[in-house]
Amino acid sequence: MSTLTNQLKSNLKETFGFDHFRGLQEQIIKDLIQGNDQLVIMPTGGGKSICYQLPAVIVEKTCLVISPLIALMKDQVDGLRANGIHAGYINSSLSPQERENTLHQVADGNIKLLYLAPESIGYVSSVLKKEYLSYIAVDEAHCISAWGHDFRPAYKKLKFLKQSMPEVPMIALTATADKATQADIVNELGLINPITHLDSFNRENIFLNVQPAHKRYDKILKFIQSHPNESGIIYCLSRKSTEKLSEKLTKEGLKVGVYHAGLETDERNAAQEAFIYDEVQIICATIAFGMGIDKSNVRWVIHYNLPKNIESYYQEIGRAGRDGLPAEALLFHSYGDILTYSRFFEESSNEEFQMAKLLRMKEYADAVNCRRKILLHYFGELLEENCGNCDVCKNPRKFIDATVLAQKALSAIARVKEDEPMGVIIDILKATYSNEVKEMGYDQLKTFGVGRKLSKTDWQHYITQLINEGYCEIAFHEKNHLKLNPLAREVLFNNKKVFLAEPQKKTFSEKKTQNVTQKTDNQETIFSELKKLRYQIAQQEDIPAYLVFNDASLREMAEKKPQNSAQFLGINGVGLRKLEVYGDAFINLLKNYGSSKKQKGETYLITYEHLIKGKSPQEIAQLRELSETTIYSHIAKLFEDKKLTAVEDFVSPDEIEQIKLAKEKIETETGEELQQLKPIFLELDEKISYGKIRIALNF
Ligand code: ADP
Ligand code: MG
Cβ neighbours of residue 561 under 8 Å, at least 6 residues apart? Predict the structure, then answer.
């Protein structure tokens, strides 16, 4: 390995705690250090930030980061500081004095990364010089393009940066795969001979699930209930539906926030913050929500409505599972959404373009084969094998000979002279006396009632497939009437065979079976303890919990149970600073559970068997070659499980008294309810074990 490769690898571990680079990260960093301009295209959640954050640690001067949202700048800087990197930001919320101080630090070379919104560029003119800046990173660079869906006029101002400092390398980063937008970025920023890095768009950890919208509220509720305490986003089409949905979910006892462009800036920022800080579990939002949010423990994203194109969909689901752990994207597909959009689009100047994009989205939702293949193909990538992590792969569709079904549907379309939408066709097939049927006398048709046996949803499913397979189509300009294609004649008159996928009967989340690693109950308990500790630390430091450690790191801790600093540093996500500041608290907690080698099976139940036989904790510790502390932690667990009830068998009344007093004392001093055992342990001069404290507090 070259020296630079080695250095980058150790920087990645020491500073960010990660063991390996993902995808093209290493190459991008090398190109940046060598002074090249670059355009980087990586999916949402792919890991763009490291590409400009890591080299900032190595080079001498400051890296200027242009990032769109003032509200999120503080979190980004907090995240860097948690890793021991000197970072700052400048925006209108700072006082002139604070801004001045920060600029001085830049001039003195004491700040590695300076975050700035394009609107604030005027504040920093004094340091926009090659003497001070090592390179400039433009994040969410698609905001510069009027083609893009997040156009922000202030990004246009950035052109002068490259013009006035051509020697300072610039790296532009985006998740937008659209070619026109990419060309726009290069032109508008004036990048000089940029290297383009297009990383894979595959986000393997996201389970892709599409379900019919029928009874979607019930399905959503069930889904959330099967994902307790997991953060998630629900995207809705309208402001009103975000509010309605959040109201209903709140009534179920869930903690839910709302975010849409109709709220005041303050309200929006507060909702965003509550979500980032895990104060609400769920956010019901319009697409206005999400850009620049790096919350790594979003475990699921639900689309209440069909997104209007695949780009938006992919960007939105990309916000789940940034930490690389299994995550789920659940999309509700309704035919009604297509009609709503087609009405919206009629008023826009590029109706056909938008409609074409929507139809690709619809094809994805209707797909009867691997969904990931379709997505990646859309972004120009070929996936050779089926992904195995979408609802179709998990539950392959069964194809049946549907020739007779197809003949019935197509003939109904013919008999109404191709002059009715899908709903009326289904009414005819099912012999429903709807207004249209009565008015037009369709009950006299030969096809009236020939499809009684199937449900309305099943008919929708089959007719949609007939549309997708090209037998008929929807004329959006003619009140959504169904029209026959030449292929339909083959079916109606030449007996052409038609094979269609059966509707899915099983509609629910596969989450429980998709986890790659089998987690034991014990690991789940440790994981939730670790989460509590993380939340506590985050509150003390006033930063979002995921900035302390992400879920992936906590999962690994729960599995490996590191017992000392060296082992703790081995966890992905633990760098030197986090080891130093958080190491003790986490290691202490994990010590209660013993190392993973000894933890095979339900070890505390073995302790239980010995106790029943009348052995003392000391004897069991000797017998099992475990520490007494570990045995006491087993006993504490047995109390929690109510397998044991007589506390005084293990902790003397005097000890119980001391523990309770210590707890009260600490709580009076801090004015808060105590969640951790450590302060009590320390207060009692480390004389009473953690196990005993746990047992006593359970009492
Ligand atoms: P993007 O900006 O591309 O949407 P981020 O830069 O926010 O994505 O990164 C997404 C997540 O991936 C973050 O939680 C980050 O800590 C994590 N990450 C990035 N690079 C690595 C890596 N090499 N190893 C492990 N995790 C990583
Ligand atoms: Mg990002």
Answer: 526, 590, 593, 594, 595, 596, 599
The minimum-distance atom of ligand 1 relative to the CA of 20 is: 23
Mean pLDDT of all residues in 252-278: 94
Q: How far is the CA of 139 from the centre of ligand 2 (A)?
A: 7
pLDDT at 404: 96
Domains of the chain: 3-198 (3.40.50.300), 206-333+364-394 (3.40.50.300), 399-503 (1.10.10.10), 521-698 (1.10.150.80)
175 Cα: distance to centroid of ligand 2 (angstroms): 9
> Tens digit of pLDDT for each residue in 461-473?
899 889 878 899 8
Answer yes or no: are the C-beta atoms of 633 and 690 closer than 8 Å: yes
Report CA Rg, the chain: 30
Residue 562's Cα: distance from chain center in Å? 27
Three-state DSSP state, 310: helix
* Sheet strands (E) in 304-443: 327-333, 399-401
44 lines ligand 1 (CB under 6 A): yes
Q: Could you say which ligand is closest to the alpha carbon of residue 321?
A: 1
Cβ–ligand 1 contact at 199 (below 6 Å)? no
> Taking a C-beta distance cutoff of 8 angstroms, is the pair 16, 553 a contact?
no
- The pocket of ion ligand 2, defined by CB under 5 A, consists of 48
Distance 50 CA to ligand 2 centre (A): 9
Within 13 A of 180's CA, how many CA atoms are on the CB side? 5
Determine the residue type at 252: E
Distance CA 88, CA 83 (A): 14
Identify the weakest region by mean pLDDT among 32-36, 391-395, 607-611.
607-611
Strand partners, 88: 114
DSSP 299: E
According to DSSP, the β-strands at 195-198 and 133-138 are unpaired
Distance of CA 197 to the CA centre of its chain: 23
Q: How many helices and strands in the chain, by DSSP H and E?
A: 32, 17
Question: SS3 for 224?
Answer: helix
Predicted pLDDT at 513? 40
Pocket flag, ligand 1, residue 296 (CB < 6 Å): yes
Positive or negative CA dihedral for 578, 50, 544, 64? positive
The residue nearest atom 24 of ligand 1, judged by CA position, is: 18
The label of the residue with tokens 């109390």 reads 639
Whether 277 is in the pocket of ligand 1, judged by its Cβ within 6 Å, is no
CA angle (497, 502, 503) in 5-degree steps: 140
Ligand 2 centroid – CA 47 distance (Å): 7
Whole-number pLDDT of residue 147: 67
- Report the range of poorest mean pLDDT among 203-212, 453-462, 502-511: 502-511
Q: Which ligand is nearest to the CA of 69?
A: 2
Could you tell me the distance, in angstroms and rounded to a whole number, from the CA of residue 45 to the centre of ligand 2?
7
Task: Please work out whether the CB of residue 176 comes within 6 Å of at least one atom of ligand 1.
Answer: no
- Cα(694) to centroid of ligand 1, in Å? 37
Instruction: Say if residue 39's pLDDT is above 50.
Output: yes
Ligand 1 pocket member 148 (CB < 6 A): no
In the prediction, which pLDDT does 649 show? 82
> What's the gap in Å between 242 CA and the centre of ligand 1?
29
Probe ligand 1: pick from 9, 10, 15, 16, max atoms within 8 Å of CB?
16
Instruction: Tell me the pLDDT tens digit for each residue of 202-247.
Output: 999 999 999 989 899 999 999 999 999 899 999 999 999 999 999 9
CA distances in angstroms from 117 to 14, 136, 236, 287, 319, listed in the order given: 29, 13, 28, 21, 21
